[in-house]
Design goal:
There is one protein chain. The protein is mostly helical and 697 residues long. 62% of the residues lie in helices and 5% in strands. The chain has five domains: 180 residues, Serine Threonine Protein Phosphatase 5, Tetratricopeptide repeat (Alpha Horseshoe); 151 residues, Rossmann fold; 81 residues; 73 residues, Winged helix-like DNA-binding domain superfamily/Winged helix DNA-binding domain (Arc Repressor Mutant, subunit A), CATH 1.10.10; 178 residues, Serine Threonine Protein Phosphatase 5, Tetratricopeptide repeat. A five-stranded parallel β-sheet has the order 2-5-6-1-7, sandwiched between helices. The chain has a three-stranded antiparallel β-sheet with strand order 8-10-9.
Amino acid sequence: MVEETRNSLDGRAHVVVQAGRIGELHQHLSGTEPSASAVPFQLPPVRVRFENRHEERERIARAVEDHPEHGGPLLVALTGIGGIGKTALGFHVARGLTDRYPDGVLYVDLDELRRDGVVEVSDAVGELLVGLGVSTEWLERSLGGRSKQLWSRTRDKRLILVVDNARFGTEVVPLLPSSDHSLVIVTSQHALYDLDGTAALEVPVGPLAVDDAVRLLGNLVDDPRLAAEPAAAGELVRGCGGLPAALQVAGEWVRRHRRRSLSRLVAELTAELDRKGVPVVEAVWDAGYAGLSPEAARLYRLLPQLPGRRSEEASAAALVGTDPEAAGDALEELESAGLLEPLAEGWRLHDLLRGHAERRARQEDPDGTERAAARRALIGWYRRQAARADALAAGPRMTFAALPGAVAPGGPDLAFAGKPEALRWLDAQRHALYGCVRLALEDGLYEDAWALCEPLWTHFLDHPHHADAIDAFHAGVAAADRAEHLPAMVRMRCQLARPLWERGRYEEAAEHLHRALHAAGSLGDAPAERRLGASTVEFRGLLKAETGDWAGAAADFEASRAVHEEIGNAYGVLLQTYLLGRTALRGGRHAAAVVLLREAHTMALGQERERMGARAGFELGRALRLTGRLEEAGPLVGAALDGARRRGSGTDEVRVLEELAELAEARGDAEAAGAHRAQARRIATAGGRVPDGDQST
């Protein structure tokens, strides 16, 4: 029941409930404010000398020089078909202007945040805020709150923001910095007409001219044949359509066949075109594919099955059923062939090449048997690794899916050094994990779908990506229903209710909890089933507390506590007692809160539950202050401050400092109260909270 201990009743779930975990990830020096973040630079290193685009670069340079002082950030939209080099141009321009924009360069790829064609904009804003030094514990829940944080953080800054793969102007506008002195470079395959009144300089990016394409090819591969056979080189780059993505593959293909004349190589491509009737650029990719080893070729065909946009050794090994070292060799071979783009962490398959890989897969696996088997192996591997990470991150808690066996013959287990590494892995793999839930549901792997949602619950509590969670937990509900797994049917609806109510969708959350409670009525009398039923009642109480129904919440917590007492679950009794105390405190029943919270505090110390003891002690201190028992309150709140600093939780430290200010004020010590509030403001502002009265637009 570890996950239930993080529930909050104050409308800001992460302030209180994440303190223990955030301390593992965001270390602050005890008693000090977080230091200012380093200037961000989120562009990848240069790998190939940039070629041409002189006219486009000159247009952008003139716009930068002529940008008015009070016209908002300069927005430049690079438009053109996929593979034409928009991103490379945007990166090149950004690198060349860093002296003019000394406050950093941010980058966000909207396709990485896109589900069913729609971007979760609040997640995109959250990524920018993290890049600007805002720790995840300080991220506001709503898009409106995060927007204010972004405006506050970017005011008067000279920043460059590169927004890749935008499809609509409405995806871009919420990401704009508030500073007039910033530059925003957007790439899109078409003009963005819905920028909501924001003026943009549109810079169309077309195919490279033949001479420029030949020079780029020369940058990619140092080969004397390009100069010795200019006609053949020109024919080759014309066949690539002036697309840098195609020229990359062509360059590696030329490099591989050093003993043949360039004319002969181009003639072979032309023959391929005549025989198959495919575009020459497709023949270029086919030629690159034909030179692969069987292992690399199979991996290339299967890479589109990965749910995320990035590939890495471990997931590739699970996909093809091999060991990570062999998968790494295959990935490097694909990179050498120009078929994969290297990233700081892993590799990426260009969308144009993704389409080519899918076509080759359909040709060589017409009934989809190989692809379906690879997806099953991948989903099973992710499910196992996520469950293992969850066990380290959350410890023993209520789950209903058994740990699946190791995927054979490949996909060995990851070696997690401990809880922090497990949490980092869950966060780094969240796109793949959420994607696997959808894949599993689509493939009829219903147990895998809802079982993956169990570790994603742990991740959601620390990193509340609400749109992803709602989407995945909806799939988990559907999978549990189709599998007719009663405990999962109950649990998945509870998990779905939480992100729904945190997004203000109270009626939907209430409906899912109503169905969960109805299903829970069919559970048996075994302790585990009764515990699940009590947890479901607790969720309903939390929803009632979220909407201010203190009496209804208290009734549900009382009912849940009674069940835990009957089944002998001491921690469940402790948790419900704590929730009852918090509910009484927020409902204005301060004397009752003192009794309940003292009881919870005593139980927590007796059970050696350090975090629950700290939380109960803090709330008890607040209740004692509100009943005028200031001397008793002081040591409890002081201990809470020590604990917050020891854990490195900035949000908890601010919360306790604000309570210390209230306590000092109640004692008549205005100077101490002011000092506590000033320190709290410094920490909160450094962490990312919008300063009081700052509503920058």
